[in-house]
Amino acid sequence: MYYEPGGISHNLPFNPLKSCIVPRPIAWISTVSASGAVNLAPFSQCNIVGWDPPYVMFSAFTRPGGIRKDSVANAEATGEFVFNMATYALRDAVVATSIIEVSGVNEMEAAGLTVAPARRVAPPLVAESPVNLECKFVRTVELPSTTPGMFNSLVIGEVVGIHIKDAMLTEGGKLDIERIQPLARMGYLDYAVVREVFELRPEGISDRMIEGLSGGAIPLSKG
Question: Looking at residue 65, what is its pLDDT?
Answer without folding.
Answer: 81
